[in-house]
Amino acid sequence: MSDNMTHKILLVGTGYIAAEYVKVFKILGLDYDIAGHTLNSVEKFNSTYNENAVPNGVNILLGGDYKYDYAIVAVSGNALYEVTAKLISAGIKNVLIEKPGTLTKNELINLIGDANKKNTRVLIGYNRRFYPSVLTAEKIIAEDGGITSVNFEFTEWSHLIENDLHSVDIKQKWFLMNSSHVVDLVFYFAGMPEKIYALNAGALHWHDSSSRFAGCGVTKRGIMFSYNANWEAPGRWSVEILTNKHRLYLRPMEQLYIQERGSVLLNEIFLEKEPKEKECKEGLYKEVECFINKTDDGRFCSLQEQLSAMDIYEMISGEKY
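RESULT FIELD:
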C-alpha cells in the first residue's frame, strides 16, 4: 500500500453514497473527517453509521488547523459545484467529485479555470469504469484485437423516479445525473463520438425534454455505436460490446456474459475480486484506491472530458446544460 494512504481525507456529504465511501475508508485504513451540511442530516448520519460528521463542516473543518491532502465530494447534484469550488479555493490539491461533476457547462468551465490556477487535480468519479466486469471485459477486448461496434440502452424506471425525493431540477436533468453512467462507460470503452445522429421524443411530467431516445454514430476510434432507450416502457441499463471473436454483455452492468462466434449461448464469466472489494459498493474500492494512490488517473473522467461529453449528452437527451 502506498505511503499516500497515511494522508487524511475530507469527505463532504452525509447521504447514502457518503456512507459507502466511509466503508471503503475503513477497509483501506484511511484517516478521514466528514463534513455535513444541516444539523438534522448530520445527526441522522451519525446515529445511523456511528460516525462524527460535522454540521456546516466545509466551513468549520477548512477553517481549522488541519490541512487535507485529499477530498471527496459526495453531495447532492445541485451542490457539487459550490462545494468543489470551496475545496479548490482552500488549497486541497486532490479532489474527487461524484458524477456528473456539475449540472451546467458554465460551472464546469469555472472549475476547470479554478483547478488550473491552483494546480489542483480534480477528477469525476464514474464508478462503473472501475467495475470488475469492466476490467475483465477490457482484457478480453485487448486479446480480441479491439472493439468493432457497441450497442447500449439507458432505460430508466420512471415509476420509481417520479415519486422519489430528488428535487425538480435534478429530475429535469436525470439523463446527466443518472443515465450518463451508461453513456460515459460506452464512450470510455469506444472513444468519444466523431459523428452522432440523435433522436428524442416524448416527455414525462418530471422530465420535460424527452422520454424516448434512439441514435447511432461513429467514434473517433472508428467504432460504430447505436442506442435505444424508452423511459415510458420496461427496460434496463445494458451495454453490448462486439469484437471479431465475441459479443460481451454487461446486463446487469455488475456482471459479464460472453457469446462465442458461431454460438447463441451466453456464458457468465467469473469475476475475480479482492476479498475486501466484495464488502464495498461495486467499483468504489478500486476507485478510491486509485484516487488516493494517484494511479490510473486515465480511468477517471477529467473535467475537460466531461465538458466535451456534455455537448453529446445534450444531443442525446434534449436536456440543456
